[in-house]
Amino acid sequence: MTIYIQGNQPFSTPIKWVFALIEVNKQTVFTYVNTFDNADLIISNSINSPIYLDISFYEKINNNDFNVQNPLNSPNKPDLLAAIFYLVNCLQEYNTTALDVHQRFQFSASWQAQTGTITENIVQKLINLFLVNQPKLSYLVAKSRETCLFLTHDIDGLYNAWRTEGLWAAKNFRLDKILHLLYLEAIRRPAWFNIDDILKLHSAYDIRSTFFFLTEKGKNREGVAHADYDVQSPKIQQLFKNIHAQKSEIGLHKSALSHSNFKSELNKLSLSTGLSTSFSTIISNRFHFLKFQLPEAWQTMEAARIDLDASLGFAEQYGFRNSYGLPFCPYNFDTQKAMNLTVTPLNVMDGTISHYMKMPHSEVTKTIIHFLENNRKDAVLSLLWHNREFAPFRYAAYLGIYKEILAYLHETKIRTVTSSEIVGEFGAKY
Questions:
Q1: What is the CA 203 to chain-centroid distance, rounded?
Q2: What is the C-alpha to C-alpha distance for residues 404 and 396, in angstroms, rounded to an integer?
Q3: pTM higher than 0.90, yes or no?
Q4: Quick one: average pLDDT of 303-313?
Q5: For residues 143 and 161, what is the distance between their CA atoms, to the nearest angstrom?
Q6: Quick check: 189 and 230 in contact, CB under 8 A?
Q7: How many CB atoms lie within 10 A of CB 264?
């Protein structure tokens, strides 16, 4: 399949980026030619092109004017390629002022909230709609891949369960839980120091996951607490060894502290592993408290040579923050090509369901499995379960829910993947 994309136009590199995305999505390869004489598909602003292009959209974004609407909302014929570019790259978040007290983009301000499409893989539908309308590309619509799951754990705390869970137990007059906490402290097995238990549970299902560790302590100016542990301590280094022995992986949980940076935190975490060079390289990140803004966060991670980011999810709502089911490399407006950073969206977080949505326990398993069932094709779905949700206290029901999800994965044979596997399949393909 040969494609001609007219050069030196505002749409030239964004359209090339979209076609590269489609190549990865459909596991195919296109050939690009410099003349339209023998091209199977012509993309041009001339009358010869069968593809409708919203030229004003591309002119604006090439001038770094991101005050653009989703092309799907256009009163005219929608430019499907522009819509794919807009959604996947989260252009609605560029230079936005719709931020919460933690300076995070709010779900309520999103196009997904306004259209009620947060749980839909809209971009996949747009890709297939575009392809089905191109006679020489329509055969690609039938191509799909089986969905897999990226299991992750943010390790916000390991030692302070006695304080947090003890306060909960006291408020709820749970003397049994207070005694249980005191017993665990007495035998020096804090309730949240349970990573080995998680690894054992995963081993029973032959599952691998990725653990994101904080390197910093203290609180930021919004009061967000950080680690109650030291990644350089012998106990934590032993945890790192246990994680790698099970062939799971370690990532950075980038702090929300204004005075810290990626270089210092990556160095601290890499050196603390105490493992060989091949193991001590940290390739992935998730921002603590999902505190980040776009595109600055992506630019900073690319400069720090992070290979994968796993932060792209709303704290308040599960689903697809950028309406796309697969990992991708964001478009860099400075270089006019894809970044080396691979972004794998965060779809479901335990805290979203328990804290923000306050979903009844009886509904959680059914809701998550329903979401997984509705996206059995063309997605790498990401599930975040904090280690505190494995403890038998405030979130005791969530351990049972997690086990039910693992049983579902085993029964349906949904494959789990690690951060390095995602980078290997989706990274630097554009």
A1: 24
A2: 14
A3: yes
A4: 97
A5: 48
A6: no
A7: 13
